[in-house]
Design a protein that fits this description.
By secondary structure, this protein is an all-alpha fold. The chain has three domains: 149 residues; 184 residues, hpI Integrase, Chain A (Orthogonal Bundle); 146 residues, no CATH class. Helix content is 58%, strand content 2%. The chain is built from 26 helices and two strands. A two-stranded antiparallel ribbon has the order 1-2. The relative contact order is 0.06. The chain binds a DNA duplex through helix 3, helix 5, helix 6, helix 13 and helix 16.
Length: 541
DNA sequence: GCAGACTCATAGATCAGACG
DNA sequence: CGTCTGATCTATGAGTCTGC
């Protein structure tokens, strides 16, 4: 820890030190946790310094009292740069984190009080914690969280370009061969470290792993890799190509985020490089006690993959979008392409499992960017309505709808078919061929993120009635008849309406109940009378 | 070192269906 | 029609990690 005034404040406060010691005992053996502990202690140190400016406390324990609660709120606001005039935090996340730390500290103080049978300490800590639970969200947390969420609404989301990834991959392959040759010719810690950095980056890039996970790969995990080729009956379930791939790659399991087991696939060239690294560890100055596969020579620590990735990205020429090449963005890239590939549920599960996500998190954070979805897919519904052609798309999925953006809006007299179509319920799936228009639109909207994936690359036969269809018929089923409230809409179909309800800012149940459609029909009376005039059959609950 | 993002767990809110 | 119950969704807290 840097020896500045914050460090001095921490060292001068026994309570913070003991609290830090307890955190340390919890994660003593995990080097990566030490950074986290330092950060937590410095947050408390900074809060203490801020509190000292506005009140006469000397230690953090004096702050953990109900009568000091309002001063603590003030100090936390000052610390996170809260402006009373604008009501905006400079660092909203700091405000939230400090709150968590304070609560955790209060619980620590209470437990220490219990050990010493110090009733006053216990009472103060308990009451402070109580106040925290009941008031903090109103005083600080709620506002800070809202601000954090709002900041994300219109923040541009940059995904890596496929071309950039290819260039980086080629560059790394070139570097790997060069450093492998160097290490074989001259075993030095510099050559070892350079080869380790390239291999680490390659493994992370190829597997789309989190930077920390690959960095902390253990030597033992690599040495115990399973190289057996015969899978017996399992092979029967695989195609010839898949069997070939099984022989090509080696799979090892490593510890992922939150202790989860995640797989890593290694190509022959990665294995060659890793074999060279493991053979020459001691000669190249890697400490015997350092169990990390990508160890730092002469140290207990490991190479940080995100630093390596950034270094190679900056070295590699011709990368158009270097700031998008981070481990998280690469993970989003593969997950986004999975949407383009229209994977089935089980396949998506497999992908999410490989990436170390649960499926809910995968859908929430790693699907196509919401803005792209809304621009590319849901906008078609709105355009179709503007053009008075909603009925033309009866029974079609969003992907199948083709809308000409240049077409003028027909505000003239009603078309009988339109009226008829709107009042009909579309149940049957369409046999139209799969259209890649939506994916093409995605690529051309804002980021052209899916370059390099041609329509032929990704087109897959669509299953009849596949659950991934977001069909207009579902929408009509839910909304266009008086029986709408009595209809049982499956959970799957409910999910399909999510994009639409998100754009419209309505709750899904609202849409289901037909209430949304009721207001929509009112809206359409003005926007597109041709669709509705004379539509007597359209009655809404 | 720090701010913010990611992830998971859980409490609370909401809804649908069963039942009296 | 009101109440209960279980399922599902949403918001929030908290821990962990990444990117700069």
């Amino acid at each position: 820890m840097i020896q500045d005034k914050i460090a001095v404040a921490i060292k001068g406060d026994n309570c913070i030190l003991n609290y830090g010691f307890r955190l340390f005992k919890k994660n003593e053996k995990i080097v990566s946790q030490h950074q986290y502990i330092r950060q937590k202690l410095r947050e408390l140190g900074r809060l203490l310094l801020e509190a000292k400016k506005i009140t006469h406390v000397k230690t953090i324990q004096e702050l953990i009292k109900p009568e000091q609660y309002s001063q603590v709120v003030r100090a936390a606001k000052n610390l996170s740069g809260f402006s009373e005039e604008t009501g905006i935090y400079q660092c909203p996340s700091l405000a939230r984190k400090v709150g968590h730390s304070l609560h955790s500290l209060a619980m620590f103080i209470k437990s220490e009080g219990l050990k010493k049978k110090d009733k006053e300490t216990i009472k103060d800590a308990e009451e402070f914690a109580q106040l925290y639970l009941e008031s903090w969200r109103f005083d600080i947390a709620g506002q800070a969280l809202t601000q954090l969420n709002r900041a994300k609404w219109n923040a541009p989301q940059l995904l890596p370009l496929t071309q950039d990834i290819q260039r980086l991959h080629c560059y790394l392959e070139e570097k790997l061969q060069q450093h492998l040759k160097d290490l074989k010719e001259h075993r030095s810690s510099t050559n070892w470290k350079e080869l380790a950095k390239v291999t680490l980056t390659q493994v992370m890039l190829f597997n789309r792993r989190r930077a920390g996970e690959v960095s902390r790969m253990r030597l033992s995990a690599y040495l115990s890799k399973d190289t057996s080729e015969e899978q017996g009956d399992v092979n029967l379930a695989l195609t010839a190509l898949e069997q070939k791939l099984c022989r090509h790659f080696v799979r090892i399991a490593i510890v992922g985020k939150r202790g989860r087991k995640v797989p890593v696939l290694l190509t022959p060239s990665m294995r060659e490089s890793l074999d060279a690294l493991t053979e020459s560890r001691e000669e190249c100055g890697v400490l015997k006690d350092n169990g990390y596969l990508f160890a730092l020579p002469q140290s207990d620590h490991y190479l940080r993959a995100c630093d390596c990735l950034r270094q190679f990205v900056s070295e590699c020429a011709d990368i158009k979008n270097p700031q998008a090449l981070t481990s998280i963005q690469l993970r989003k890239h593969i997950a986004t392409l999975s949407t383009v590939l229209n994977l089935k549920t089980t396949e998506l599960d497999q992908l999410a499992d490989f990436l170390g996500h649960n499926i809910a998190v995968h859908r929430k954070h790693y699907r196509l960017p919401e803005s792209t979805l809304q621009l590319a897919k849901v906008s078609k519904v709105l355009l179709a309505m503007e053009q008075g052609r909603l009925g033309d798309y009866k029974g079609k999925s969003l992907d199948e709808i083709q809308v000409d953006v240049n077409e003028t809006i027909d505000m003239e007299g009603p078309l009988a078919e339109d009226i008829e179509d709107v009042s009909m319920l579309g149940e049957d799936g369409s046999d139209d061929e799969v259209s890649m228009s939506s994916t093409q639109e995605c690529t051309s909207t804002s980021q052209s993120q899916n370059q390099g994936v041609s329509a032929t690359d990704v087109s897959m036969p669509r299953e009849e009635g596949s659950e991934d269809e977001v069909s207009m018929s579902s929408l009509q089923e839910c909304s266009s008849t008086s029986q709408v409230q009595n209809r049982s809409v499956s959970a799957k179909k409910r999910g399909k309406l999510w994009g639409l309800h998100s754009l419209l800012g309505q709750s899904c149940s609202f849409i289901f109940k037909g209430f949304y459609f009721a207001s929509l029909t009112q809206h359409l009376k003005y926007v597109c009378p041709s669709l509705l005039s004379g539509a007597t059959s359209l009655t809404v609950a």
